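Postdoc handover notes: sequence design on the structure in folder B. Input tokens:
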């Protein structure tokens, strides 16, 4: 084995350190697979002095990841810093300009700069691999980009954020609060450095826009997407959904419609009997509907050091073997511009929770407003809060509000919006209405 495939690794956090440890401990096996030696030569992180539980003295240290990216010591630059700007952006562009292959787990970066990075990689005749950027350890990119080429894909959707799925699962199973669950997800290394990206749906959106591009052959468009996170989901919603036979999941959905491609990320009620409802904890799932294959589901760990390192290392070894695929699955110049469908045309059932004070006439008024928009109701139930008082005896100053839960049959986003606006104007509602879409065809 005279040739050595040389790796430079920037970022030694949750994913970086798991990747480094595995590259070292599996070096002999990985070299056998590649047919020549595969070695980490140089590393970079913010703090040189941090104890990372591994002897780093055998690797050349770079304070500046850009200098590492341009170094003659390496064939591939592995970016595990994170963020769509700053050192991650600068070092990845620098590596490609210097003619180095790049492997990254950074979905924020690919979602924002993926089109231009793909073009640059092609111009430089190098690879840009990002398997770990979507759904952690699940080989979702390979499946869509390489294994589904004989299919016209009509829809791709899934649970794409481990932190959110972990939070929703633990809130439902263990009755824990949102903040307790988020703290646990952070302790376990699942959450982003800024967990707002997870819980507000941005991380799922980044991943979905990447999958959309690969599935539909369009440019990545991270502006044309509806994004709603899980911060408004309360224990009351989880309990009501449970009673009605549903679980709440944060889904990312991209599909072809008559008016263009729909990209949306939002909490969704899924029937407990559906396979997507069984995906719990940090597990992710990606469902791909293709005309030749039908529907396939890939499920596995969506976050965490070792699971993500598995995908990062697979990308590195592909390059060491000499396998390189165009970053977005086809020449970047042949990608179609993204054509967005209109979200108000979205059709489906809806869960609506309305907090009301005075029950007199409320049911009738809600039913009237729904009927005005031609919305049919599958069910309307009142959720009584546990109280030691009868409704008429609640002392002044105590909260007398009750929840009314509506489940609608299929209707449009636009009609739901108009009905809620009218109900709001009627003055019965005492808190912002909660509206959650119900999944169809899952
Ligand atoms: P961490 O925050 O744990 O690690 C980030 C690393 O980047 C740290 O080692 C940090 O150095 C280093 N770093 C920060 N700034 C600089 C800089 N200016 N120069 C050099 N190094 C720097 O992040 P994760 O490991 O969790 O995530 C890394 C990437 O992987 C992100 O893009 C993330 O979205 C993605 N990802 C994460 C997953 C997960 O489960 N955690 C799963 C899939 C993808 P220091 O340690 O010295 O502070
Ligand atoms: N924060 C991300 C998640 C990491 O929880 O899914 C994996 O991309």
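Designed sequence:
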């Amino acid at each position: 084995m005279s040739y050595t495939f040389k790796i430079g690794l920037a970022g030694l956090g949750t994913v970086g350190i798991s990747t480094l440890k595995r590259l070292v401990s599996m070096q002999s096996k990985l070299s056998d697979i590649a047919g020549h030696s595969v070695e980490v030569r140089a590393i970079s992180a913010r703090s040189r002095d941090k104890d990372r539980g591994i002897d780093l003295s055998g690797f050349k240290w770079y304070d500046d990841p850009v200098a590492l990216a341009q170094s003659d010591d390496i064939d591939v630059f592995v970016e595990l810093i994170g963020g769509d700007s700053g050192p991650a952006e600068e070092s990845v562009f620098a590596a490609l300009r210097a003619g180095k292959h790049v492997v990254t787990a950074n979905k924020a970066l690919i979602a924002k700069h993926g089109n231009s990075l793909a073009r640059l990689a092609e111009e430089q005749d190098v690879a840009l691999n990002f398997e770990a950027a979507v759904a952690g350890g699940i080989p979702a990119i390979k499946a869509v980009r390489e294994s589904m080429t004989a299919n016209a894909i009509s829809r791709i959707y899934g649970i794409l954020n481990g932190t959110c799925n972990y939070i929703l699962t633990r809130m439902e199973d263990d009755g824990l609060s949102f903040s307790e669950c988020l703290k646990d997800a952070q302790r376990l290394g699942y959450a982003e450095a800024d967990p707002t990206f997870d819980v507000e749906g941005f991380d799922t959106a980044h991943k979905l826009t990447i999958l959309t591009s690969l599935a539909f052959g369009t440019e990545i468009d991270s502006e044309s997407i509806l994004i709603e996170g899980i911060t408004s989901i309360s224990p009351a919603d989880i309990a009501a959904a449970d009673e009605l036979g549903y679980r709440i999941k944060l889904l990312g959905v991209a599909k072809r419609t008559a008016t263009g491609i729909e990209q949306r990320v939002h909490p969704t009620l899924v029937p407990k009997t559906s396979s997507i409802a069984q995906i719990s904890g940090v597990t992710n799932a990606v469902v791909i509907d293709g005309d030749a294959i039908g529907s396939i589901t890939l499920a596995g760990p969506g976050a965490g050091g070792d699971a993500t390192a598995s995908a990062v290392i697979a990308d590195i070894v592909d390059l060491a073997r000499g396998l390189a695929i165009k970053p977005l699955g086809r020449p970047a110049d042949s990608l179609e511009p993204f054509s967005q469908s209109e979200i108000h045309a979205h059709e489906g059932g809806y869960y609506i929770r309305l907090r009301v004070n005075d029950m007199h006439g409320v049911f009738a008024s809600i039913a009237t407003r729904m009927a005005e928009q031609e919305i049919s109701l599958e069910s309307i139930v009142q959720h009584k809060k546990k109280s030691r008082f009868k409704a008429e005896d609640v002392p002044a100053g105590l909260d007398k509000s009750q929840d009314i839960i509506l489940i609608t049959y299929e209707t449009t986003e636009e009609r739901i919006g108009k009905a809620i606006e009218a109900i709001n104007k009627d003055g019965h509602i005492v808190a912002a209405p909660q509206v959650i879409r119900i999944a169809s065809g899952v």
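Context for whoever picks this up: The longest helix spans residues 107-124. Don't rerun without checking with the PI first.
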